[in-house]
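Annual report, structural modelling task.

Input specification for the magnesium ion complex:
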Amino acid sequence: MTHAVEIKDLHKSFGSLEVLKGVDFTVDEGQVVCVIGPSGSGKSTLLRCVNLLEQPTKGKVTVGGVELTDPDVDIDAARRRLGMVFQSFNLFPHMTVLQNVMIAQRRVLKRGKQEAERIARENLDKVGVGAKCDAYPPQLSGGQQQRVAIARALAMDPALMLFDEPTSALDPELVGDVLSVMRKLAQDGMTMLVVTHEMSFAREVADRVVFMDGGVIVEEGPPGQVIGDPQHARTRTFLRRVLDPTYSGDDDTSETADADGGRAATPGSAGG
Ligand SMILES: Nc1ncnc2c1ncn2[C@@H]1O[C@H](COP(=O)(O)OP(=O)(O)OP(=O)(O)O)[C@@H](O)[C@H]1O
Ligand SMILES: [Mg+2]
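The model returned the following structure:
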């Protein structure tokens, strides 16, 4: 069976900094895979390698049976099958919501104006901002803007949706609206690869959770296992920090010493 996404021995370096150190995993059609892990562990880089916003240093990325890392691939055609939603919404501020959702359909997919408008309206309705078609992005809340960005991606008929911390720039009371749109997409069978710190979302919606640290996958499995009963000390320490921001992380140090080597000196040690 072909996987929706297949990543094999993926490496990515920036100069002498090796950020991805051999990552392997697959996403099956209709599955939701959530990627979690500490800041700097390579989650965004991984996502950016999946749509070739970054060129992998080594390894294979295959999406929908098409190897994107093949030098002969038509990368624009392949990328058209991928929807990407970032932390920042990247909407054009001088265009209406409707125009924002139409422009790539017109330019990239060469859809006619009427068809593009119909599809834009359908998708804006679907994410609950159909009433905002004629508004400009700066007139919308962050949660509404992010839902417009999701509608814009959906309007391109993606085979796979990539989300990179789609709710982390939002005020807490707006997070729920965006997560419920994503939950609905998952229920409708969309294949999704989601980098998130929303553990309750991952627990409820993900088919699999991948925990990354230091450019490798430390563990992966069903959410009940990785979040509910993590096997590795690094995963446990990370989850404790995410679930309890006041946690200082002083236990499990035997396995996290490397990852935490750059942390600031303890208070009081700077006297003199
Ligand atoms: N274009 C780049 N040039 C140089 N270094 C980069 C580049 N992009 C990322 N890095 C480095 O790669 C490492 C991993 O970054 P990445 O953004 O993938 O982490 P992340 O897991 O998404 O973190 P966060 O949770 O903070 O978003 C970091 O050390 C970062 O500084
Ligand atoms: Mg990131």
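Strands lie at 5-14, 17-27, 32-36, 58-63, 66-67, 82-85, 160-164, 192-195, 208-213, 216-221.
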